[in-house]
Amino acid sequence: MKGLKIDGAPSIDELRGTPGYPGIERARKRSIAFIECIEEIPCNPCETACLRGAIKVGRPITNLPQLDEDKCTGCALCVAACPGLAIYVKTYDYREGMSLIKFPYEYLPLPEEGREVELADRYGNTLCKGKVIKVDVSAKNNRTAIVWAEYPQEYFEDVVTMIRL
Amino acid sequence: MRVWDIVVVGGGPAGLCAAIEAAKNGARVLLIDENSRPGGQLFKQIHKFFGSAEHKAGVRGLEIGLQLLKETKELGMDVWLNSKVCGIYDDNVLWVVKDERKSFQVKGAAVILCTGAVENSISFEGWTLPGVMGAGAAQTMINVNRVLPGRKVLMVGSGNVGVIVSYQLLQAGAEVAAIVEAAPRLGAYGVHTAKVRRAGVPFYVSHTIVRAEGDGKVERAIIARVDERFKPVDGSEIAINVDTICLATGLTPLAELAWIAGCKFVFNRVLGGHVPWHDRYMATSKKGIYIAGDITGIEEASTAMEEGRLAGVSAAAAIGLIDTERLEKIAGEIWERLDALRCGPFGENRKIAKQQVMAGGDEQ
């Protein structure tokens, strides 16, 4: 893969060099935000949305968001707040052998809770099956649904979304 | 002839904000728009906006539109819809044709031109076939009229417009077969391209459309790789079955009224071509004529709204409703917000281009 400006999606290498992308070790232990925002654009709703001050953009607002891994609890308030839909919350050890992702989703129909769906990587390739745990359509999300899905741990980093229904 | 303090031409984000600021400061305002509803492109923008809280970041464009319409109602200004401004004469007199049959002359002590922009097209074999359209047209169909332009779309151009409209076509239920970009790198914000890429849409950089084929309508697009001089490379053609080809190949400021009025113009490629010169208060070289939004150079709704506010307060100050000290204070605050939007790798070019325009010289 050749990176964000050729493929359209950020590569893992590009992501790992940014201050919003947490270390995998950290994510093994708890739920944490993965901010896939690697370009300096004028935007900071993630910083405003976080009640714990775990995301810092500061000034100028083109700074990349910086994640404080100790403060982030994986609450997912930033997931729907991000206009770029570029934040996921992931938990490596959700239950035995399974991880959990909370991702923003703006397509209809929405999946039903409990349904099996196909989960995909940053390029739209199907990686594995996953089970929808919850579909959060609360008003605070302003019509961006947050889908919770569990999936095999081996795909932890690569899964970011589901194949549309 | 009827006379207002301030006449605003164009009711998009810039015009609405200009009218609101002017009315808030006590001006009697007439807002003129050629459409049946004001809001410009805002009601097509169903995505959440970027920026910071003071730029209404995280709010969807159509919600900003509704809020601005509510403010115009509360302020009680005059709004003429289905009205086209066809001419501008000395002393800020405008010729308006209403409902395509009634002709009026109106005058403003100050006039603010917020006429927006028009989509650019590119020509290629088969480009007149039904199914070839501007990306903005497709966006109007899906988000305003709720009609799918087609089932399977090729998007030409990877700037924010092309990629956002591609995303919205997916949301509306269409398939986007590919997005082609003549440049070697994608243009849009990476978060936008990432959204459509993970939905399975492939990007073709250094590619262009060479031909649309089909019997009476688009059935296929032929794309090809381009060399460094953007010439298609023989033998690199790829056929993609689509029924719709959307062109997102840039915008040009709609500045005819400023030309007619005799405003001084400067040429700036970054901003989309010829734009009226303006000062830091959005005043043109013609006394009493102000501009804001895409007419001053192609940017975004967030910058258009700030420029509109600035033009609104400047025009109100020009007719004595705001004193110099207060104008300076407000203008300073607005410039701070504009500077915040015009920084970083995407905004810096526009900031420099704007400075070139205000300095008055054509680009080198």
What does this structure look like?
The complex is a heterodimer of chains A (165) and B (364). The longest helix of chain A has 6 residues, at 24-29. Chain A has one domain (4-162). Chain A contains five helices and nine strands, in the order H-H-H-E-H-E-E-H-E-E-E-E-E-E. Chain A has helices spanning 4-7, 12-16, 24-29, 45-49, 77-81, and strands at 32-35, 55-56, 66-67, 87-95, 98-105, 116-120, 126-136, 145-152, 161-162. In chain A, a hairpin with an 8-residue loop joins strand 7 and strand 8. With 165 residues, chain A is an alpha+beta fold. Helix content of chain A is 15%, strand content 31%. The radius of gyration of chain A is 15 Å and the shape is globular. Chain B is globular, with a radius of gyration of 21 Å. With 364 residues, chain B is an alpha/beta fold. Helix content of chain B is 32%, strand content 26%. In chain B, strand 2 (29-32), helix 2 (61-75) and strand 3 (78-80) form a beta-alpha-beta unit. In chain B, helix 1 (13-24) runs parallel beside helix 2 (61-75) and helix 4 runs parallel beside helix 5. Chain B has two domains: 2-118 and 251-359, 3-Layer(bba) Sandwich (FAD/NAD(P)-binding domain); 122-247, FAD/NAD(P)-binding domain. Chain A binds chain B through residues 4-10, 36-45, 48-49, 59-62, 81-86, 106-108, 120-124, 142-144, 160-161, 163-164, and chain B through 47-53, 57-60, 170-171, 179, 184-186, 189-201, 203, 205, 340-347.
Features:
heterodimer; A: 165 residues; alpha+beta; seven-stranded antiparallel sheet; 15% helix; B: 364 residues; alpha/beta; FAD/NAD(P)-binding domain; seven-stranded mixed sheet; 26% strand
